[in-house]
């Protein structure tokens, strides 16, 4: 059941009444720092020892050999393989469109004697982290590696946790094959992030690390972020559904349970001005949760962070959703396209009752690596631009310097940086 909260007439911060799951990071951060230190000092040996300690796996070779990937792909269920291939096609097409919308590699502003511009280049080497603790995530292989490939990244290294037998899940290996990834390692957790960030005897360090993971992975990314680029810091998954009295309560309940099965800390919120919808969804939630394969995880998430919020009207409901800045926002209302213009903060928006979050997780083509924990206020989904960087280009002749010298010297004098002005004066003398 969802916890009912009546927010009618309430104009304060909804998170004051409906908090996200509280997590204590202090102990985990100390553990992560120890892991990172071990990997920096002892390299491969530390990675092997930590993999045995945390994953219960004894591994001789960190690298997943191409033959192992090929064998898993050849043995893959045909329907599953076809599904992964279809998802890969749509993800590639979506991100190729992103690339086409990016600014041209060179652009110039100005005139002869004084022009400025930008040069855009793909990162040389990136690391993609693919979770593997609670389940296999072949979809995350596609979501992280395909945009990198589309962007033009030269080298892509994937890390995925092994099972107790030392082998990653066959479906994940199949996704590596379909994505065309030739460099992959059977390591997970903070040790994988440390290995990607600093390198070991086997793994060359990368320029940027992307991909979601556990709290230990997230904290490790935070710890290494002064030395290597990272895409963001993922928290527990979350969904906010804004619905009106025309919404099908079965759809709403199914989507809340689908998100809850990810993580016992998942945030699952319904916001509506319809008390009758809340009552109907509560009944459907009981039915859906009873049949869930991960019943314990679902029950813990819904009892801990499952809410039904009663709003004044649609405008109030949208404002509440914006305050959450959720990873996933569903607009199960009469005219979702019109409401979309009023949504400022969300990682991904799913319009209408026939657009569940599950589509975005797998086959819609959009990326499922999304900002969480309210970071949708300022962050974006993983995209092609995460795998490129720009360099400013300045090209002046004497006429350009003469034109701007008075402005520059006035500012330099005010800032007390006389040598800056002198750098111009020597060129004009």
Number of domains: 3
Show unreliable segments.
Answer: none
CATH homologous superfamily title of the largest domain? Nitrogenase molybdenum iron protein domain
Morphology: globular
How many beta-strand segments? 14
* Structural class computed from helices and strand pairing: alpha/beta
Q: Beta-strand level of the residues, as a percent range?
A: 15-25%
Care to describe what's here?
With 429 residues, the protein is α/β, with parallel strands linked by helices. The protein contains 17 helices and 14 strands. It has three domains: 3-19 and 236-338, 3-Layer(aba) Sandwich (Rossmann fold), CATH 3.40.50; 26-230, Nitrogenase molybdenum iron protein domain (Rossmann fold), CATH 3.40.50.1980; 397-428, no CATH class. The chain has helices at residues 14-17, 26-42, 44-55, 66-75, 78-101, 138-151, 170-179, 189-198, 215-224, 249-260, 275-290, 295-305, 314-324, 336-340, 357-362, 398-415, 418-428; strands spanning 3-6, 106-111, 114-122, 125-129, 155-159, 183-185, 208-210, 229-230, 238-243, 267-272, 306-310, 328-332, 348-351, 388-396. The chain has a six-stranded parallel sheet with strand order 1-11-10-9-12-13, sandwiched between helices. Strands 6-5-4-7-8 form a five-stranded parallel sheet, sandwiched between helices.
Sum this structure up briefly:
Helices cover 47% and strands 17% of the residues. It is an alpha/beta fold and 429 residues long.
């Amino acid at each position: 059941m969802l916890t009912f909260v009546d927010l009618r007439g309430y104009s304060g911060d909804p998170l004051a009444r409906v908090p996200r799951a509280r997590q204590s990071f202090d102990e985990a951060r100390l553990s992560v720092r120890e892991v990172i230190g071990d990997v920096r000092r002892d390299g491969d040996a530390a990675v092997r020892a930590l993999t045995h300690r945390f994953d219960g796996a004894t591994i001789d070779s960190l690298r997943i050999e191409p033959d192992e990937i090929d064998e898993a792909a050849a043995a893959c269920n045909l329907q599953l393989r076809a599904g992964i291939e279809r998802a890969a096609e749509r993800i590639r097409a979506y991100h190729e469109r992103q690339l086409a919308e990016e600014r041209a590699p060179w652009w110039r502003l100005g005139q002869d004697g004084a022009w400025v511009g930008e040069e855009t280049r793909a990162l040389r080497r990136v690391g993609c982290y693919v979770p593997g603790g609670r389940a296999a995530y072949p979809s995350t292989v596609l979501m992280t590696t395909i945009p990198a490939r589309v962007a033009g990244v030269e080298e892509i290294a994937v890390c995925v946790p092994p099972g107790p037998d030392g082998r990653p899940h066959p479906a994940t290996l199949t996704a590596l094959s379909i994505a065309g990834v030739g460099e992959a390692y059977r390591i997970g957790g903070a040790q994988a992030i440390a290995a990607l960030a600093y390198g070991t005897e086997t793994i060359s360090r990368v320029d940027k690390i992307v991909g979601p993971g556990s709290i230990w992975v997230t904290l490790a990314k935070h710890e290494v972020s002064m030395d290597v680029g990272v895409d963001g810091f993922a928290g527990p998954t979350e969904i906010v559904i804004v619905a009106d009295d025309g919404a099908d309560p079965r759809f709403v309940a199914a989507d809340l349970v689908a998100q809850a099965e990810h993580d016992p800390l998942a945030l699952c919120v319904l916001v509506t001005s319809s008390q009758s919808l809340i009552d109907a969804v509560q009944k459907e939630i009981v039915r859906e949760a009873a049949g869930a394969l991960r019943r314990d995880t679902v029950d813990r998430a819904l009892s801990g962070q499952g809410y039904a919020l009663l709003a004044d009207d649609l405008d109030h409901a949208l404002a509440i959703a914006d305050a959450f800045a959720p990873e996933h926002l569903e607009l199960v209302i009469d005219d979702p396209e019109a409401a979309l213009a009023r949504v400022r903060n969300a990682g991904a928006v799913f319009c209408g009752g026939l657009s569940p979050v599950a589509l975005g997780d797998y086959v819609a083509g959009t990326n499922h690596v999304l900002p969480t924990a309210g970071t949708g206020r300022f962050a974006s989904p993983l995209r092609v631009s995460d795998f490129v960087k720009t360099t400013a280009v300045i090209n002046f002749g004497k006429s350009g310097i003469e034109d701007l010298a008075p402005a520059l010297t006035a500012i330099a004098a005010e800032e007390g940086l006389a040598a800056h002005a002198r750098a111009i004066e020597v060129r004009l003398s």
